[in-house]
Specification:
By secondary structure, the chain is an alpha+beta fold. It contains 9 helices and 4 strands. The chain has a 4-stranded mixed β-sheet with strand order 2-1-3-4, with helices on one face. α5 crosses α8.
């Protein structure tokens, strides 16, 4: 199995974390998005939208990180990160939908405006940052209430629901706007726990 992605890509990091939770080292083909390699024909033959990542498993091609991590969870041995029972799996799917629809678009406004823009020589767009933080607040409030009752997003076990949020929260902090996370103490405490997991340190090259 080959993973076509980049270690700094949010969605690639979800896959890297999932592999690390399963105890599997990635066979990565680095696609350098800073050079536009994700838009070249070779990569777009695997990911027709020109995004990261994609996997090739014995000729089977799969893209979209949320689909990839579920595939890996089913294929690889180890703890079931999608959940060990029907209700947990439903909660994982619920929170994955919340992340995709209500959390990530707002978080990416902050990340794009305050972290990615300077990387490409552009000024920080403070108006866009403020917009993203305002849009992120309702999702964080709901997540904070949930994490007041459980150790992890979908219950008392670490799951794909946690992994889905993690790259964006890390980059909100890297963009120096972690105050929006810290204003929600249960989310901040959860982040401290999950960011110390060996799998996340492996995914982010910090171990």
């Amino acid at each position: 199995m080959k993973l076509h992605g980049h270690p700094m890509s949010t969605c690639t990091r979800k896959v890297l974390c999932t592999l690390a939770e399963k105890g599997v080292a990635p066979d990565m083909v680095v696609v350098d998005f800073t050079k536009g390699e994700h838009k070249l024909a070779d990569h777009m033959s695997l990911q027709p939208f020109g995004k990261l990542p994609a996997i090739v498993d014995d000729g089977f091609v799969l893209y979209e990180s949320r689909a990839i991590v579920r595939y890996l969870d089913e294929k690889l041995p180890g703890a079931k990160l999608h959940g060990a029972d029907l209700k947990t799996r439903a909660l994982v799917d619920q929170w994955s939908s919340v992340e995709q629809s209500h959390f990530t678009p707002a978080a990416m406004k902050i990340i794009s405006a305050a972290l990615l823009a300077p990387m490409f020589g552009k000024p920080i767009d403070e108006a866009k940052v403020a917009e993203g933080k305002a849009e992120l607040k309702p999702a964080l409030e709901i997540l904070d209430r949930a994490l007041a009752k459980t150790k992890f997003v979908a219950g008392d076990s670490f799951t794909l629901a946690d992994i889905g949020f993690m790259p964006y929260i890390e980059y909100v902090y890297a963009a120096k706007h972690g105050d929006v996370i810290d204003a929600h103490p249960n989310v901040a405490a959860w982040w401290k726990r999950v960011s110390e997991r060996p799998s996340w340190k492996t995914a982010t090259g910090k171990n």
